[in-house]
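Quiz preparation item.
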């Protein structure tokens, strides 16, 4: 019986779930389990994946959504602040790693051409894996996370130029290289201008219209991310650049947090295929022939790359903890490193032994850096005294990551008539309050209080709200299922304040109280109260 693509993907997902369960039971990072599952389903072990074209397509869409969500959180003001340190750290690390890596390869007996490919492959770190790890740890919005994202993007641009150089050298030669670099510069500038114009004059107006329908808005966002990723690929850039720019174009809209929450589940599912594809690219037979060289290069990447980042950021005036945690993000090589050496092999510049070596280094460093990043706080606590040499006596660098944080005492969900009344009365009492609504028309209205675009049915909504000092969350929404979802999400997030929710009848009230509500509201009864009191006074 012939096994089709659908059956292959079903079998692969079963293996991934099994690997995930095993990793959870062994208290290991899920990412390591997924990569192991990718190796297991590949041709060297179970052989479940005969062709990875379909998995590769799903992986590319998952990567596009990941970078799109990252772009949503990074507006242009933050890019200006992070630009200098990202450029200095990114280029400094690339130069250091490539030079030292080349010398190590020459010392091990590799030819100049082989040493060049190995050195360049060692310079690139995996943006996808690092963003995933930092997102899981909720550190992507921290200072070290933002800086790391900046210099990882610089690396991505360098790898594009490296691939152009390899293709040109293998084809048209020097003149072709100059033409390609000039063309990529012109196309890059045109792309930035076009996306900037859309973000300034078109996207804000269109987003207000699309946001009236949840399903349409999410569909449009995914379409925009994938379409711009495809356009940038046609222009000679990586798909990650296009997806990232698509997210940035929406970063200044009030809908970015809600959109990020809506896409998180789809993103995580599709990223599974990226880790499967990554695992299937590891050629264990070829890698086993270069074990000792792979161990040496892996130690260099795991230790040398973080140290050079520590040195550069220390000279720029950053504190040692920020520099250390940012440095750990470059302690592995990228999936682009494997693509780079494969391209070199296809051009006849290197042989399979270099491909096997880089494959082994990738497997070792990606796995090891996962543990390093997950345990970064514990590691820092142990080696903190030794890191003082990388910090100035008076660190001077400081980046304001955003405007002054809103710290309300009350959050009101649903800005209909009843919700507006609640907000108005809280404001009259002098209480600080934030409103939340899914209707874009409510967001665009002039309010004397901050208003957040959000959906009470989104289980990730609490992560988008400033709940640090909130005493009460008040839901004026009258959907029983919606309020149950909200209560469960708030408690799961660790919210310990009061939760008041609306109900239409006594049975619903009792059910919501059992789910964890502290107080129920009968909007119709509340509205009728003043009228009945006035009628009683007239008698």
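Solution:
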């Amino acid at each position: 019986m012939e096994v089709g693509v659908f059956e292959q993907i079903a079998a692969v997902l079963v293996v991934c779930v099994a690997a995930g369960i095993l990793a959870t039971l062994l208290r290991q990072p899920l990412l390591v389990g997924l990569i192991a599952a990718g190796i297991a389903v590949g041709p060297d072990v179970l052989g479940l994946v005969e062709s990875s074209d379909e998995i590769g397509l799903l992986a590319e869409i998952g990567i596009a959504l990941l970078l799109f969500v990252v772009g949503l959180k990074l507006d242009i003001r933050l890019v200006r602040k992070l630009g200098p340190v990202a450029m200095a750290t990114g280029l400094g690390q690339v130069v250091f790693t490539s030079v030292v890596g080349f010398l190590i390869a020459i010392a091990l007996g590799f030819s100049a051409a082989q040493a060049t490919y190995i050195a360049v492959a060692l310079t690139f770190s995996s943006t996808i894996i690092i963003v995933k790890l930092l997102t899981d740890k909720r550190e992507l919005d921290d200072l070290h996370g933002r800086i790391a994202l900046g210099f990882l993007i610089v690396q991505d641009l360098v790898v594009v130029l490296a691939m152009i150089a390899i293709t040109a050298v293998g084809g048209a030669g020097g003149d072709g290289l100059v033409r390609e670099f000039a063309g990529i510069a012109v196309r890059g500038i045109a792309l930035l201008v076009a996306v900037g114009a859309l973000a300034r004059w078109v996207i804000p107006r269109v987003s207000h219209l699309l946001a009236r329908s949840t399903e349409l808005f999410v569909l449009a966002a995914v379409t925009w991310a994938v379409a711009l990723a495809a356009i940038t690929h046609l222009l000679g850039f990586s798909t990650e650049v296009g997806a990232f720019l698509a997210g940035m174009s929406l970063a200044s809209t009030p809908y970015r947090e809600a959109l990020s929450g809506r896409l998180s589940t789809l993103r995580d599912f599709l990223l599974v295929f990226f880790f499967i594809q990554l695992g299937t690219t590891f050629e264990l037979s070829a890698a086993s022939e270069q074990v000792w060289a792979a161990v040496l290069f892996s130690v260099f990447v795991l230790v040398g790359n973080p140290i050079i980042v520590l040195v550069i950021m220390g000279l720029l005036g950053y504190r040692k903890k920020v520099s250390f945690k940012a440095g750990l993000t470059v302690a592995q090589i990228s999936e682009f490193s494997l693509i780079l050496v494969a391209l070199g092999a296809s051009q006849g510049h290197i042989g399979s032994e270099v491909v096997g070596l880089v494959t082994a280094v990738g497997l070792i460093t990606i796995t090891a850096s996962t543990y390093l990043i997950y345990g970064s706080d514990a590691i820092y606590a142990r080696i903190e005294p030794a890191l003082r040499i990388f910090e100035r006596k008076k660190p001077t660098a400081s980046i304001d990551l955003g405007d002054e944080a809103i710290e309300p005492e009350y959050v009101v969900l649903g800005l209909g008539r009843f919700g507006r009344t609640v907000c108005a009365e809280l404001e009259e009492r002098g209480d600080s309050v934030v409103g939340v609504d899914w209707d874009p028309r409510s967001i665009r209205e002039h309010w004397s209080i901050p208003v957040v675009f959000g959906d009470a049915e989104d289980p990730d909504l609490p992560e988008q709200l400033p709940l640090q000092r909130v005493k009460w969350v008040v839901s004026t929404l009258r959907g029983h299922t919606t309020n149950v979802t909200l209560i469960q999400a708030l408690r799961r997030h660790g919210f310990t304040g009061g939760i008041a929710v609306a109900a239409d009848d006594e049975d619903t009230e009792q059910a919501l109280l059992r789910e964890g509500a502290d107080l129920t509201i009968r909007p119709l009864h509340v509205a009728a109260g003043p009228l009945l009191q006035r009628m009683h006074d007239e008698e």
